[in-house]
Design a protein that fits this description.
This protein has 433 residues and is an all-alpha fold. The protein contains 19 helices and no strands. The chain has helices at residues 9-20, 23-26, 31-35, 38-69, 72-83, 85-99, 102-125, 132-161, 166-195, 197-217, 231-242, 245-261, 263-276, 283-304, 312-332, 339-363, 367-398, 401-418, 421-431.
Length: 433
């Protein structure tokens, strides 16, 4: 009997590569080879420009919210507004991504996010004490656009490079996100004291134009559409996860990891101020976030370069162990100087781990269900992070970073033991014989 994930020879061969770390995943699939694809390169460059703006807005929004209210709970609420829609709307986005023209869908959603980012800038500029409700509403609207956009964007990536360069393309995409995580916070940290929050939000709105231009000129290949309609499309996505125990374990691990191990993503400005004494609107804070982003960038890039031939399923476990150690160290620091190298390492292992998970997931999916399963990925990842900020914000107000980050360190160590993907894949293969 065939394996649940052996719908195509490509996926079947990829399973062997992920287990053994052989040359299939590497093959011609270097970062240079992936970047040689014109369509991928244009989308990558446009997305990089847009993501720089997004990270400028993200880091400044958290700092502005904490300066405005002094409340970690409000910072967590805004993080929920940004990422919470992924919990409910990612599935809708996945269905739409597999059913409609992805180019038009992505353009419409970029325009929607542009409009509400500009609205946020206007709200903040209109008063020295702007409405918290209006700020939340604008951020929520951008979050809704992102939730509908993310599955379509994730589904487009593999179609632009082909299976042989898929691993490298995923690594480059993560590198782009995290490279912008370095540039964006650094620029935001420098420009925020000079220009103020409103101008940063306005600049972010302008950067959406880079993606819109790229979407207008890139040629998208034809992708086979699944025959299911309505709720049957949703069910097909869940069946694809159910029938593949490795994919199911990755998604469950990611969901727990996001909720219990990643509260610092949303609460970074509050942690920096309460535990390290760094003002959320200072250049020192911006540089701290940039150090974290640089580590994340290099961690993601390492999966397509230094660790290109390494078995990704095993890298997930090593990454979780490294994350547990780095998070625990960050939680006990009370002075800024050692925090910079620690958050660099934390960023590295964080995104090396999640990029390895994503490589495993993407390699084992067929184009027909990719959008719907990627919707579950974004629901688990982004939705989980939004819940983490909402739940752990009040806990941080009541305790300190040692408690909040200590929980994440312990859970990450337990996940490293549980997420043995290599053994699970081999057992599942034997069960199908």
């Amino acid at each position: 009997m065939s394996r649940p994930w052996s719908a195509t020879p490509i996926v079947e061969d990829s399973q062997e590569a992920l287990l053994e770390g052989d040359d299939y995943v590497r093959g011609v699939g270097s970062a240079r080879s992936a970047f040689s694809h014109r369509e991928f390169r244009l989308m990558w460059l446009g997305s990089f420009a847009s993501n720089v703006g997004t990270w400028m807005q993200t880091v400044v929004l958290g700092a502005f919210a904490y300066t405005l209210t002094g409340s970690s709970a409000f910072v967590g609420a805004l993080a929920f507004a940004q990422l919470g829609p992924l919990l409910l709307l990612s599935i809708v986005g996945g269905i739409v991504a597999d059913a409609f023209d992805r180019r038009r869908l992505l353009i419409v959603l970029q325009v929607e996010q542009l409009v509400f980012s500009l609205a946020l800038a206007i709200v903040v500029a209109s008063s020295d004490d702007p409405s918290r409700v209006l700020i939340f509403a604008c951020v929520l609207a951008v979050g809704i656009g992102n939730a509908l956009n993310a599955p379509a964007w994730g589904a487009v990536l593999p179609s632009l490079v082909g299976p042989e360069d898929l691993g490298a393309a995923i690594s480059l995409n993560s590198t782009m996100v995290n490279g912008s995580r370095v540039v964006g916070p650094a620029l935001g940290g420098i420009l925020y004291p000079i220009l103020g929050a409103a101008w940063i939000f306005a600049l972010n709105a302008v950067t959406y134009l880079a993606v819109i231009v790229a979407l207008l000129v890139v040629r998208f290949p034809e992708v086979a559409r699944a025959e299911e309609r309505g709720l049957a499309r949703v069910a097909a996505g869940f069946r694809a996860v159910r029938d593949n125990p490795v994919v199911a374990r990755v998604l469950l691990t990611l969901a727990v990891f996001a909720v219990l191990c990643l509260p610092f993503v949303s609460l970074f400005p509050a942690l920096a101020e309460t535990d390290l004494g760094l003002d959320a609107d200072s250049i020192s804070y911006g540089l701290l976030y940039a150090a974290f982003g640089l580590g994340a960038c290099l961690g993601a890039l390492s999966i397509g370069t230094v660790f290109a031939a390494a078995p990704k399923m095993r890298l997930v476990r090593f990454g979780l162990v490294g994350f547990a150690v780095a998070t625990g160290l960050f939680g006990v620091l009370r002075v800024p100087a050692p925090a910079y190298p620690v958050v660099f390492v934390l960023g590295f292992v964080y995104f090396a781990t999640t990029t390895s998970m994503l490589t495993v997931l993407q390699t084992l999916l067929s184009d027909e269900v990719r959008g719907r399963v990627m919707a579950l990925w974004f629901m688990a990842f982004g939705g989980g992070v939004s819940i983490a900020g909402l739940v752990f914000g009040p806990l941080l107000d009541a305790t300190n970073g040692t408690v909040v980050l200590g929980v994440g360190a312990v859970v990450a160590a337990l996940l490293a033991w549980w997420c043995d993907l290599s053994t699970l894949a081999r057992q599942s293969e034997l069960e199908q014989v």
